[in-house]
Amino acid sequence: MSSADENTPNSGVAALLLGEQVQTAAPSTSLAEKFYISHGRSLKALAILSLGLLNEDGDPIFDVKALPWSSAEKVSNIKPTASDMKEEVERRASVAGIDPMPCQRLGLCNT
User: How far lies 43's CA from each of 22, 40, 72, in Å?
Assistant: First the structure.
């Protein structure tokens, strides 16, 4: 195919009709989406991922005391636990390229 043919809207169809292979990039899954999927696409996982995000007014998107979160049957089902938060801190740190627990790895924590 010429470069002019590649710029036409149906160039992919033409390539298929001519028996040429068309390469398409596979969609990549973000770490946040992998986290959400690995936690069963639960409301709790969504709440954990939304922590720290603000709406247009500057208010937190996630607040267990505000609607729609406060209307849940059991707020404890969506309120993150310490172990949930540890996993999320580690995920966000890996995305940012930083060590989430440097004092533990260096033996500087007061434990």
Answer: 39, 9, 10
